[in-house]
Amino acid sequence: MASDSLTTSSGTPVSAASTTGHPAGDGPDPKRWLALAVIAIAQLMVVLDASIVNIAIPEAAIDLGISQANIQWVVTAYTLAFGGLLLLGGRIADFIGRKRAFLIGLAGFAFASALGGIAPNQELLFAARGLQGAFAALLAPAALSLLAVTFTDPKERAKAFGVFGAISGGGAAIGLILGGVLTEYASWRWTLGVNVPIAIVTMIFAVSLVKESRATGDRRYDVPGVLLSALGLVALVYGFSKAAEEGVGWSDPVTLTLLAAAAVLLVSFVLYERRASHPLLPLRVVLDRNRGGSYLIFLLVGAGIFAIFLFLTFYFQQTLGYSPLESGFAFLPFSGGIIVGAGIVSQLLPRVGPKPLMIVGLAMAVAGMLWLTGIGETSSYVTEVLPALIVISVGMAAVFVPTSSTALVGVEEHDAGIASAVLNTSQQVGGSLGLALLNTFYASAVTGYLVDNPGTSQGSAFVQGYHVAFIGGAVLLGIALVAALVFISAKKDDLPTEGALAV
C-alpha cells in the first residue's frame, strides 16, 4: 500500500482530502492514540471470539445436546458469515461512514453475543454465531479503515498498524486462556457474554474519541454479487455438513441438491462479476498469478489449520481429560510459535524472498499435521502433541507473513484495500469449508470404526476420527504447497512495503 493514500477494505481510496470529519490541512488528530486504543480493543474482541469459544465447545455440546455432526456449526456459522460478508462490510463502512459502521458493528456484535450466551438450544446458538459473524464483517474492516484515515504520517501509521497486527496475533492466545477460565469457573455461556461489557465500554469511548470519515463518489452496492456469493457458500458448507449426518451421506438427494445449487450459484457469481459495473470482487484482483495464488494458499491453509483447534480441543478434554483451562494452556505454544516465528520470518523475507519461506513453512505444517496422526488415548502431551504444535505454528508463521505481501504484488493503488479484504475472506471461507469437510470425514470415520469394530471403546473411535481429520488437514496443506510451487513467482524486490493485514 502506498503511504500517502491508503485504500480501505472495500478498495476505496482513502486520503486526508477524501474523508469527512478530518479534512486535509487540519493536522493530525490530537486524540489519535486514544482512538487507537479504542480501535485495538474492538479488534481484540473480534480476534478473541474465535479462540475463546473453541475451548467452550465441548461444554456447550453437552449442555445443549449438539451432535458430533453439527458441533462444527458453532465455529462455521461465525466464520462463514464473517468471510462471506467481509467485502460487503468494508464497502458499507466506506459509504455510511466508518465511525457509524464501527459503532453499529459493536452494538450488533454485543447483541449477538448476548443472544448466544442465553441460547436455550443449538438452533439459537448457531443463529447467534452467524449474527456475530455478520456484525464482525462490518466491524473489522471499519476498524482497519479508521486506522488508515486517523494516522496520516507514515511513521505513526506504521506504529499504529504494528499495534493492530500485534493484537491480531496475540489475541488468540489471550482468548484460549480466558475461554478456559470462564468455562471452568463460570460457564461456557460467559465466553460469549463477556463481549457485552467490552463492546459497551468501547462504544462509549468511541463516540468521543473516534472521528467520522466516509468515501466520496459513487456509492452503489453489488447486491446480486452479495446474494450469489453468500448463498453459494452457505449451500456448499451445508452440503458438506449434511453428508456428515447419520443416515444421510454423500449420495443422499439432499446433499447432492445442495452441492449442485452451490456450484450453480458460485459459477453465476463469477459470471456476474465479469460484467458488473460495480463488482463486489473485481476479477482483475484475483486473476493475477501471485495474488490469485496467495488467496488460494490462504483458503487452503484456513481449511486445514482451523481443524486443529476443533479436534484437538475435543482430544484434550474428552480423551485426555483436560479441564477447559488446561486445554487453553495446552494451545499456548501454538500461539507463541506463530508470534516468535513471525518476527524471525519478517527479518528473512527481504533477504530470501517469499517463495522459499512459503515452501518451507507449508512443508513443516504438513509434517506437523501428520505427526498428530500418532496420538492415542494415553499419549503424552509433551512428547507427542507439543512438538507437532510447535512445528505447525512456526511453519504457519513462514506462510502468513510472505503470503500477506504477495497478496499485494502488482496491485493498483485503488485495488489495494480489496486485495487485503479478499485475503481475509479467503482465510475465513477456507476455515468454514475445511471445518465442514473435515468434520464430515471425522464423523464418518468414527461411525465406520464402531461398525467395523463392535465392542470397541468409543474413545478409540474418536481417536480414529481425529487421525482421519488430521490426514485431511495435511492433504489440504499439501495442496497449498503445490499452489505455492506453481503460482508464486514474486521475488524479494517485487514485494510491496506493506503487506495485507488479516482481520
UniProtKB/TrEMBL annotation:
InterPro entries linked to this entry: EmrB-like (IPR004638), MFS (IPR011701), MFS_dom (IPR020846), MFS_trans_sf (IPR036259), Sugar_transporter_CS (IPR005829)
GO annotation, cellular component aspect: plasma membrane
GO function terms (MF aspect): transmembrane transporter activity
Record's compositionally biased regions (Polar residues): 1-21
Region (Disordered) residue spans: 1-26
PROSITE patterns in the record: MFS, SUGAR_TRANSPORT_1
Keyword Cell membrane attached: yes
DNA-binding keyword on record: no
Cellular localisation: Cell membrane
Source superkingdom: Bacteria
Pfam families assigned: MFS_1 (PF07690)
TM region(s), chain numbering: 33-57, 69-89, 101-119, 131-149, 161-182, 188-209, 221-241, 253-272, 293-316, 328-345, 357-376, 388-411, 432-451, 466-488
Membrane topology: Multi-pass membrane protein
Chief place of localization: membrane
Record's keyword terms, sorted: Cell membrane, Membrane, Transmembrane, Transmembrane helix, Transport
Segments forming domain Major facilitator superfamily (MFS) profile: 35-492
NCBIfam families: efflux_EmrB (TIGR00711)
Record's protein name: MFS transporter
UniProt source species: Modestobacter muralis
